[in-house]
Amino acid sequence: VEVATGEVTTLVDSLDADEAAQFDGPAGIAISPDGSALFVADFGNYKIRRVEVATGAVTTIAGSGEVGDADGVGNAAEFTEPVGLAISADGSALFVADSCNHKIRRVEVATGEVTTLVDSLDADEAAQFDGPAGIAISPDGSALFVADFGNYKIRRVEVATGAVTTIAGSGEVGDADGVGNAAEFTEPVGLAISADGSALFVADSCNHKIRRVEVATGE
Questions:
Q1: Is the torsion defined by CA of 70, 93, 110, 132 positive or negative?
Q2: Which of 28, 106, 183, 184 could form a disulfide with 178 if both were Cys (CB 3.0 to 4.6 A apart)?
Q3: Residue 125: which residues within 8 A CB-CB, separation 6 or more?
Q4: Distance between CA 75 and CA 63 in Å, rounded?
Q5: What DSSP string runs through 134-169?
Q6: Is 40 exposed, middle or buried (0-12, 13-18, 19+ CB in 10 A)?
Q7: pLDDT per position as a tens digit, 57-83
Q8: pTM of the model
Q9: DSSP 206
Q10: Average pLDDT of the segment spanning 17-44
Q11: 54/149 Cα distance (integer angstroms)
C-alpha cells in the first residue's frame, strides 16, 4: 500500500505461487532494517517465511509445516500457529509469538536456528502466556513487549534472560483505563512501539479500541 496515494498492489499471491511458496493465513510481519526483505509468521502453515521485496520470492526460514513444538534449525523446528513477529535492530534475529504453544521463540535469520526464549510450561504462573499475539521490540533491543491475548495483559520480556513482567492489565476481561493492574483489556492482539520506546499502542480487539500504554508507568 502506497502511503501517499493509498494504491494497493499484490506482492505475493498464493493462488499463483508454487505450493512451497503458498501462505495459509499470514499473520505477523516485519521488515529488515535495509528494507529488502519481509518476514512473515505463516499461521496456518506453521512456518516463518522470508519475502524479497523486489521480487516477491518466498522462502522458508524455519518450520516443518506440521503442528508441533520443537527447537531446531530450519525445517527441524516446529511451531503451532505463530502470530506476532518482530525483528532486532540489526536484522539478525526474529522474535515470534508462537500462540498455541504459548511461547516466545527466537529465530536466527542467517541460519534458521530456533530457540525458545519463554516457555510457559516452565514459567511461574505469573509469567505464563495464553495465546501471545502482537509483539514489538524496544529501540535498544533489550526488551520485547507482547499482547497476551488470553490473559488480557501487556507483557514485557527481557531479551537477555527471558524474564517476564506485566506492564498493564488485571488479567480479567474488562474495559478500563488505569495504571498497571488497574487497567483492563479484552483479548489484545496488535501492538506497536513508539520510536523513542516510551509508549505502546495496543489493538484491544474485543473492546474495539486502540489503547496507549506508557512503558515506564503502565498507565
A1: positive
A2: 183
A3: none
A4: 5
A5: EEEE-TTSSEEEEEEGGGTEEEEEETTT--EEEEE-
A6: buried
A7: 999 999 999 999 999 999 999 999 999
A8: 0.95
A9: G
A10: 94
A11: 34
